[in-house]
Amino acid sequence: MTEHRRPGRPQIADPEKIGREAVALFAEHGYAAVSMDDVAARSGVSRRTLFRHFANKADLVWHDFFAAYGRLDALLAREGTGPGMGGLRVAVREVLTEQPSGTDLDRVRFRIIGESDEVFAAGIRGLGVMTAGFAHQLSRGGLLDEGGVEAQAVGQAVTGCILAASVWWAQHSDDALVDVLDQALARLEQGIA
To answer: What is the pTM (predicted TM-score) of this model?
Structure first.
C-alpha cells in the first residue's frame, strides 16, 4: 500500500527562528496570553509543523537553554578541555561568547522560567540530563567517582547554580550573562563555607 501525501513541498522549519519568534511574542503580550496558534502564525509555519518541533509552549522557552547546554556538552567532550570546575568555567565562557547570549530575548526566557511553575516543571527532565553531564565533567581526571554521591551532588549543584544565576541575571542585573554565570560558578568552586 502506498502512502498518500498532500501535494506540495514539505514545510521546512527552523526551530531556532521559531523559538526566537515565540519569545518575542511572550515579551510583547505575556507568556499566558500567547497560544501555539499565535506562535505558528508569527513564525510562518503550520500548527502541525510547530508541534513537530515543540510539544508545548514551555518547550519554546527552554529550547535555547538546552541548545546552549548541547554546545557546552560537546565542548566538554572534546580533547583538551580541562577537567573539573576550572575546565567547566572555561567551557561555559567559550560557549556563551561564541554564540551570542545575554540578549533581551534570553532575559525574557529566564524571567518566564523563574516566574512560571509550569514552565520550570517542563524543564526538569532536561535539567537531569545536565546534572549527569556535569557529574561526568567533574569526575574527569579522577577528581570524583562519577557514580558516587559526591559527583551527583556537585553535578546537581552546578545545574542549580547555572539556572539560578541565569534567572537572577534576568531579574536583577545589567551585567553580561557570561560574567554573572562565571561569578556564581567561581563561588561554587570555592565552596560555600
So the answer is: 0.88
